[in-house]
Design a protein that fits this description.
binds zinc ion; Four Helix Bundle (Hemerythrin (Met), subunit A); about 150 residues; mainly alpha
């Protein structure tokens, strides 16, 4: 089987991706500095339940959105750190280089496409195992060990 040799990124490609990461970070609406208190809006006295529940709904949406952004911001920081040690674009699993096209689409990717697919396969296998366990269909293998 011929494996396609992926070359390390050129300086120009690295710079393109670094700028992309920086601009993505800038585009995040919430910074990590946003306090929870900025989100929980207090309603004036006498607000009815509907208003209250709308506010709760909006707040929980905002919180979820913010959490996702904080998570993404951390991923971006992690990726930017890899530039400092010249490991950006290297698969964290098999240490081969991730293709430029993949990084362009997902600059925070830290797995090459092969490892990513493996990880996803494993994830769905685990899911199936969990499912069958919950259905009580797990076969007892202890007897086969003897
Ligand atoms: Zn890999």
């Amino acid at each position: 089987m011929a494996t396609e040799k992926v070359r390390a990124l050129t300086k120009k490609q690295l710079e393109t991706l670094r700028l992309k990461l920086l601009s993505e970070k800038k585009s995040l609406v919430f910074s990590e500095k946003v306090e929870d208190s900025a989100i929980s809006l207090s309603l004036p006295e006498g607000s009815d339940e509907v208003e209250q529940s709308i506010t709760d709904y909006n707040n929980s949406h905002l919180l979820r959105f913010r959490n996702r952004e904080v998570f993404y911001a951390k991923k971006i920081d992690g990726a930017l750190k890899k530039f400092e040690v010249n490991e950006y674009g290297m698969c964290s699993d098999c240490a081969s280089w991730i293709k430029f096209e993949r990084l362009l689409a997902r600059p925070t990717a830290d797995l090459c496409i092969q490892c990513k697919e493996e990880a996803e396969k494993e994830e769905s296998n685990n899911f199936i195992a969990r499912q069958s366990k919950s259905l009580g269909r797990v076969v007892d293998l202890t007897g086969m060990m003897a």
